[in-house]
Amino acid sequence: MKKTALFEEHVKLGAKMVPFAGYEMPLTYTKLNEEHQTVRNGVGLFDVSHMGCFIIRGVQAEDWVDYVTSNDVRKLEIGQAQYSCLPNDEGGIVDDLIVYRLTEEHCSAGERSYMLVVNAANIEKDWNWIQEHKGAFEADSINISDRTSLIAIQGPDATSLLQQFTDMPLEDISFYHFRKGQVAGFENVLVSATGYTGSGGFELYLENDHAAQVWQKLIEAGGKPCGLGARDTLRMEMGYCLYGNDITDDTNPLEAGLGWITKLKSKGDFVGREPIEAMKANGIGRRLVALELDSRRVPRQGYSILSESGEEIGKVTSGTLSPSLQKPIALGYVHRDFMAKGTSVKVDLGKKTIDAMVSRAPFLKV
Known about the structure:
By secondary structure, the chain is of the alpha+beta class. It is built from eight helices and 19 strands. The strands form four sheets. It has a six-stranded mixed sheet with strand order 10-11-12-9-3-13, with helices on both faces. The protein has a six-stranded antiparallel barrel with strand order 14-17-16-15-18-19. The protein has a five-stranded antiparallel sheet with strand order 5-6-7-4-8.
């Protein structure tokens, strides 16, 4: 199992460590609900250094990135980030990712530079996929995953906490924008107004050698460490997709509700364009929906979703007990005839079924 640069810090803090995406990662430090509410009401810290980071730079870097992703990379200005996905040849999803357009201070004339941040479990898969689709594009790539640490500072108090350690005016960094500068005495830290919780905040990209000291300073100033458990319940309340559960190689971005990052009108050719266009023309056969349940039982991935008459119409992809709402919530794919908000369905638990209703994400407004 791999370890992030913050592994020893987690052990010192008494975190419960678990295997995740090939890494030993903290599941909880105290209690899941406590860590969840810390992020909703204050500020929590997450080690997400297991994520993958690729740099693509060159005269045709924009063309290469635009060809392998679904969103319109050409709309990005320097200092902007963009949520996107890597479609496969059948229109499924290799991975979802964030694309950053970096400064060009270290580039030669005419070159552009991008950073692609991918899911930890897919680093090798994504890297190979992108390389296989380089073609004749004049650009170079480098995998900086193993030398880069990533700390997420999330919650309504994230700005006030981080501002103590940087001269960058954090209030001026709008959502999905970023800057590079000094943080806690270390140079060249990328501060991005992104995150996976829905409660606002920042993500710091920095060198491994600096990660422990920055982490320690943030904790000393009042940041509370949080684990993967709270990260999952937080994203579930927002209805954010998790790769491997809600989106996979076999799910089309349109049926996953990701048409907004699939720019068929403004983009030229890209991997998977034809099957995605065909699905748009013919109509989707199923749709990822949010489900609210009238039970204390939590639905799990793979549970069948039934119509009121008992016909199987889909499958649950993610489920949890919402700490904020104090009731079970889930995501799942259902046949298109049952995707309307307010539709009554059932979830099959095996020995019994529980009533559920099709809702809309986010489950919680923060």
